[in-house]
Amino acid sequence: MPINKQQVRTALTHVMHPEMGKDLVTLDMIEDLIVQDSFITFTIDLPEKNVSLETALKEKCEEAIRNFVDKDAILDINTAVNISKFRNKEDKGEFPGQGHRNKKEQERDKEEDGELLSGVKNIIAVASGKGGVGKSTVAVNLACGLARSGAKVGLLDTDIYGPSIPTMMDAHERPNITTQKQLVPLKKHGIRFLSMGLLVDPDQAMIWRGPMVTSAVKQFMEEVEWGELDYLVLDLPPGTGDIQLTLVQTVPLTGAVIVSTPQTVALDDARKGVAMFKKVNVPVLGMIENMAYFVPEDMPDKKYHIFGKHGVRKLAERMGTNFLGEVPLEQAVRESGDEGKPIVLQEGLESKSAQAFVEISNNVMQQMAIRNQQQDPTEKIDIKIKP
Ligand SMILES: Nc1ncnc2c1ncn2[C@@H]1O[C@H](COP(=O)(O)OP(=O)(O)OP(=O)(O)O)[C@@H](O)[C@H]1O
User: Fold this and answer.
1) Which residues bind ATP (predicted)?
2) Residue-range domains of the chain with CATH
């Protein structure tokens, strides 16, 4: 007798979600079910990347189909992350909260810190040891890349001495202030963002001392209406000095990514960046190699490793850190930055760098999910700031 969809659905009601105590059909996690003769394909929708859960659910689905439908069925079981589908369910309490800052922790934060980041699930710092390696370019493209996948994303430019995000986002207007005296982030390219550069004259900021910077950043976290966010990306000032050290302890960071070019002097500083985060117990999600190679437009077969070959990849291996991807040196990256149109939003993703940023965003999501499964939330330290 030919197999029908109802048989498959009934079989899948035997597969329980390990945390929810309900089956995958009741939880509305099965999509795109196609049955043709003995071939069965479907997708298990998940609210976030979770490699071990995906593997376990696939195995259980296969077992259920072989037991209850046809032991010789040809199976093609896929998984997909569908953030928007589960957001409503999460809001209604039908699905567990995602991200390391679960509801209880978010409420605790709310009590302790007023509105400080109470709706933000994951906070990622983008750091570089050395200046000018493309940290802000990566921060903008990572934020927009995460948003591309359906996540709610915020971007905060804390690089007070050289804020470049307003240019890279092509937004320069002063943010509004609500009646509750909260700043309203600007909205562009599907993300909410704020930059010190929108509020503070960079010439003035140049003479700010460390505590003033930290105090300003703290204010940016506390007095901004960020709302509900899946990810808040922080573009840190370059370096690994006192300012950076204080900043990364003031905020309960979920994890950090380190950007470097493959050049020796940049790598030395990137190593210090990894060490800094380890020292304050912030998990390093991985390293990104920017300006990894150059391909001349008129000679697409040639590849020049201008700053050295695979330096960041090798350093990540040596330091036992993940390698999240490499971005080529491309004119289009520079141009899109200057025009305020992040390359990751390029239609058709023709350029290698746009593809690289999509891959990097996916890798960051994956590492974040692994980190949230394996480790407790990062503790923030209450630093007394004397301006
Ligand atoms: N992969 C790339 N290909 C081409 N140009 C790039 C690439 N990455 C960054 N750039 C360009 O290099 C310059 C410096 O980049 P960016 O401002 O992102 O660096 P940064 O590390 O944030 O600098 P700072 O230390 O000043 O904060 C910018 O003009 C940017 O457009």
Assistant:
1) 129-136
2) 5-88 (3.30.300.130), 99-374 (3.40.50.300)
